[in-house]
Specification:
Strand content: 25-35%
Structural class: alpha+beta
CATH architecture of one domain: 4-Layer Sandwich
CATH superfamily of one domain: Clavaminate synthase-like
Bound molecules: succinic acid
Distance between the termini: 64 Å
Shape: globular
Order of helices and strands: EEHEHEEEHHEHHEEEEHEEEEE
Helix content: 10-25%
Radius of gyration: 19 Å
CATH topology of one domain: Double-stranded beta-helix
Number of strands: 16
Number of helices: 7
Largest sheet: 7 strands, mixed
């Protein structure tokens, strides 16, 4: 069927996190009214996927720019030909860990972390390789008012040191062949963000901490931070807040880093997996409650 003749269908998952959109051709610019509808669905569902979208690098870049300016992607080498596209590749014979294989929000250690990430699937293994998404808004809403009151003014410390530091995980890991990761001493820098983030477009609160980049809570001892963050990480990634996303070649998926976490799963050793990734620049996370100045 001629794609232009199809009408857009948005099928949301029960529970609100994630929606599938069909009936669009993403290789051409979306009409303003269609783009507005897609953006409204994105703000509501935080993860959108569009099956069956063969896209060139140029079309992926053009689609990305309909959402905002390109984000900055530190520590991973992009395609030489397209500096805003990272190839997320794991070769069939690769023994290194799965890239992105722990719960995180992309580059949350940046002063202005990317608002959203776009991933376009090229080669998908016959088994494994799903991506998990966790809804930080639903996790926030599920907390008691007394606990919310305690968390709302807190600020958390984020850093890339554990994965990307000069002595971090990737600096020590062997066997990576599909991607080039460049650990650096810069990764030891620390950025403080509100622990509960107000979404800049919807105003909705969401928990904004993750086990890869959040290293402590401002003003808390190491033990206190570990206890609170341990609770929050387990709570945020509890099954009732998680959606398991199954990929297919040519599927384009985007997610909102401001209110959800993601985690790439393995289970496909012996098979190749290749996707192309862009990010869209974001803003400095805003607190739910501004702190009193005195
Ligand atoms: C990522 O964290 O950007 C990678 C996600 C994936 O490969 O599924």
């Amino acid at each position: 069927m001629d794609r232009a003749a199809q009408t857009m269908m948005i099928r949301a998952r029960p529970g609100g996190l994630g929606a599938k959109i069909t009936g669009l051709d993403l290789s051409a610019p979306l009409a303003p009214a269609t783009l507005a509808e897609v953006k409204a669905a994105f703000l509501r569902h935080a993860v959108l996927w569009f099956p069956d979208q063969p896209l060139t690098h140029e079309a992926l870049q053009a689609f990305t720019l309909q959402w905002g300016q390109f984000g900055r992607d530190p520590y991973i080498r992009p395609l030489d030909s397209h500096p805003h596209i990272v190839e997320v590749r794991r070769d069939a014979g690769e023994t290194a860990s799965v890239f992105g294989g722990a719960w995180h929000s992309d580059w949350s250690f940046e002063a202005e972390p990317p608002a959203l990430t776009i991933l376009h699937a090229k080669i998908i293994p016959p088994q494994g390789g799903d991506t998990l998404f966790a809804d930080g808004r639903a996790a926030w809403r599920a907390l008691s008012p007394a606990f919310q009151e305690m968390l709302a003014p807190l600020r958390a410390r984020h850093s890339a040191t554990r994965p990307y530091g000069a002595r971090g995980f990737y600096a020590q890991e062997k066997g990576r062949t599909g991607m080039t990761i460049a650990p650096s001493a810069e990764a030891d820098e620390v950025m403080v963000h509100p622990l509960v983030r107000r979404h800049p477009e919807t105003g909705d609160p969401a928990l904004f901490v993750n086990p890869v980049y959040t290293i402590g809570v401002e003003g808390f001892s190491a033990d206190e931070s570990a206890a609170l963050l341990g609770f929050l990480f387990a709570h945020m990634t509890a099954e009732r807040f998680v959606y398991r996303h199954r990929w297919a070649p040519n599927m384009l998926t985007l997610w909102d880093n401001r209110c959800c976490l993601h985690n790439a799963t393995g289970g496909y050793d012996g098979y190749e997996r290749v996707l192309h990734r862009t990010t869209v620049a974001g803003t400095a996370p805003a607190a739910l409650k501004e702190r009193a100045l005195n």
